[in-house]
Amino acid sequence: MTNDVDTLATALYATTDDLLKKRPDLAPWRPGVGIAPRLSDPELVTLAMMQAMLGFTSEARWLRHARLHLRHLFPYLPQQSGYNKRLRKDAGLMRSITRFLATDTSVWSDDVWMVDSTPVECGRSRETAKRSDLAGWAEYGYCASHSRFFWGLRLHLVCTLQGLPIAFALTGAKADERETLLDLLAADPDLLSERAGQTVIGDKNYFGRDFEHELAQTGAQLLRPARKGERERPGAHLFKPLRQIIESINETFKGQLDLERHRGRTAGGVIVRVMQRILALTTAIWHNDATGQATLRSLTKYDH
User: Which of 30, 140, 160, 171 could form a disulfide with 175 if both were Cys (CB 3.0 to 4.6 A apart)?
Assistant: First the structure.
């Protein structure tokens, strides 16, 4: 089997189609009587993944490209407004497909997770911050990794050492990373129900006696670097190389999947565009794992 974007798209389409036949409840609700959409849900999910994988941040440009080069995969393509509405409606389906693909990999059961958050910038001008539909959710925050302030959101990500997304959330830029992690685990208790002694590695922001106690109650063990004034903590020699891993995962989202060029202007628009990128990364890892590739997080065979 060749690892190119057409093969990846075909594999995702077939898997999504099979899943929806078994679980039709995952698809967006539609009235029993009416005109069926000409672009099916599996086709839409595949089209959304390919847009993120191939680096098209403009939906209009993407559809022009698809009409010229992808008619062999998608006989019918909607107009930009119709495509945008369908994307927002199918955001829940994309999340379900992402989880299904993740659980179908050999690294889903890894006993070490990494947790971190990364900025999702949503605007730069003062006028944008005041007038945007995102105002109230998006806010000013600080990114210590790049020593800069930004206006927008944060993507909180729990992933394996190979970069497979396990759980994720979008919050305001000032949201507490510790509370967000606890909320993620509380919202999906099955994640840890069969993972006794799961190790979670975070940075210095994941601190606090109460926080560590609550995390231990879920069955997870926290490893993090010592803060200033603390004695050295277990696993200190591992943190520097592992920090580079989580930074490289964030760079995959930003450098190859254009996370900060999402062009979302509303809450629904930002959510679905972030979902596209998480789906694209998960699909690539799933397919690389199934085809026996040495580096699971490699996108270079698919992004052109």
Answer: 171
The secondary structure of 40-77 as a DSSP string is -HHHHHHHHHHHHHTT---HHHHHHHHHHH-TTT-S--
On the CB side of 288, CA atoms within 13 Å amount to 20
Q: Both tokens of residue 206?
A: 């994941």
Distance, in Å, from the CA atom of 277 to the CA atom of 274, rounded to the nearest integer, reads 5
Tell whether the model's pLDDT for residue 1 goes beyond 60.
no
- Identify residue 156 by its one-letter amino acid code: H
Residue 92: Cβ within 10 Å count: 15
The whole-number pLDDT of residue 34 equals 75
Domain spans in the chain, listed from the N-terminal domain onward = 112-261
pLDDT of residue 2: 62
What's the CA gap between 112 and 276, in Å, rounded?
A: 25
Token pair 């955001």 in the structure block, residue? 91
